[in-house]
Amino acid sequence: MKQNIKNIIVFFASILLLVNGCNSFLEVESLTKVSSDLLLSSEKGLKTLLADLYNGIPMEDFNYRPADGFNLRGWGTTGLGVTIRTSMFTDESTASQGNGLGPGGYNYFAGGDANGNSNGYRLNRDVSIFLKSIEKAKTDGIIDEAAYNRLWSEAHFIRAYVYFGLAKRYGGVPLIDWLQDDDYKGDPEPLFVPRNTEVDTWKFILAECDKAIQNLPVPGDFASTDGDPRYRATKWAAYALKSRAALFAASLAKYGDRASFSGDAVNQKLVGIDKSEAAFFYNECLTASKAIIDCNDHALYMPNPANAAEAAKNYQNLFEKTVSNEVIFARAYLDGSVVGNYQGHDWDNYYAPAQVPTGFHKMGRFSPLLDLVDLYEDYTDNGTGKSATIVTRTDGVEDDYVGTNQPTDAQIAAIPFVKYDDPYEPFKNKDARLNGSIIVPGGVFRGVAIVFQGGLITQDGTLMIYKDGNAIGHDGITYRTYGPDTGFSGFFGINSSDDANYSSTGFSVRKYLSEEKAVSNREESSTISWIDFRLAEIYLNYAEAAVESGSGDQTLAAKLINDLRKRAAHKDNIPLTIDNVQKERRIELAFEGFRIWDQIRRREYHSLFDGNYRKHALVQLLDLREPTPKYVFLRIFEFHNITGGASRFQVNDYYNAIPGTDVNRLIQNPGK
Prior knowledge:
By secondary structure, this protein is an alpha+beta fold. The protein is built from 22 helices and 14 strands. It has a 4-stranded mixed beta sheet with strand order 8-7-13-14. The protein has a two-stranded antiparallel sheet with strand order 1-3. It has a two-stranded antiparallel sheet with strand order 2-12. The protein is globular and about 85 Å long.
């Protein structure tokens, strides 16, 4: 076993699943800094190995780059790719410098690099080695039965996570839950492990979750030496992973016919799940979710606010402070400006509005879309749950968008704008989660009123938009296109990727930004934890599984979505419908990485990005035609969606290409 630890990846170079002509993935630096004797001779050493496995989990956190992989720090080779998030490939947001449709390009199946970026089968092999190591340690008396059982279940939690990362990208994959070293006797034939069906792959993930659940402790059973239960797998974390994976598979089964595929992978059921399996997976989701809902260890953070303002601050604090027992599983970071070695993340550096920069040379590059802002309710609370579209016109026509970056003066003159004294007015009565997630025009961040002005309408009706300039109002004051010279955060440098440190939509992200803690301008200096699983998601998983299947407790499901709304200071109850559940997912889970996978698992992504959909922005203009200047808001296609054109998602891109099929004999996915 010592030799296995020393060569934890080297032998796998022979495993034909991973043939890619590159040796960089053979390097496992963190496991070669200590001798194998030390690692295997104590429980502490085994936990060091386990920590390395945790670090490899394919968590789509702050350091996940959709085109490049997991756990990445520094600039790498992608340039602006460091600021791109999966949210930007959806109707939630866009990159301020513009971005195409994705995600794509990263080979989680058999990728990996010298920077420690792992792939599914490398980490899966590490799990197999670890399981064999702890078995020997138990036999040798190094660890007792209780320690062995817990480590065994943690390893299976990690394996379940690995295969979840594989299945949602590739469909059915080879299921390898043993160490293949002994399979090789000079003949490579036993190493050619075929793909399993997609349904069997998802059932394997659930079975691995069950093995994790079997011996993992609940938070109350953690000893002082066990660490923080938010950052180490508990029984509830395993149930949460099972809930998420089961819902994913159930949706694929129910809605798979929304996208049509053909070829050998389809014929052999390596992709696609039969509709008859939907009930099984929905029930698994309901059962796993209910286990967490019924436990006493997790509860919604601040579920009964006094008013909307308090609800907004509570919701913001949930992500900034991450101390709530709503958090089921998270990842922590160290301040890279203090400890070095890229231990933190750069959420604050990349995304803080330009008016409150950290001093880093890239900022403000996360631009939420008007599409999402319009989705939030107001506090009419009439039991319908109807969204409250931002009011920009007196005629009520709020689905008319300017389709050019340079609207004519005549177009502007024809719009019956609502004229506001304060740019914050249109957003005053919106769902508290809006202000907890997004910085809107006039919203305050770090004590500064954020300005997202994109232009002026001069006294004679001339429009000045997306360009720096000045005009004089009837009051004799000179006004700047982008707002006061003292600072602004929107639209400046919109046509330059190097200067795109300003919102391109009229909004900036607030969720996960550090408002109370000063952040260094050094890379990796942000330390807010990434919340991977929280109770609100489990509520929504249960509600969706219940309404889609007609099973479970329908009354409870309705209560769960209304509990989330009441945490946002709503007073009414809305009915349990799939539309209401999906709207709540979009609002409650905004920017947390769910939207793209929700669209993929429900096979809705290609219908939205059909080559016609355009992302939408809200440009605040200062109207100087009035004796006292007023604020008006222009609905417009987002700048880069005009210059770059609308995106189309191809149906065959629901499944990534299997790499190396000419060597490993695996059947390729449709259209690849």
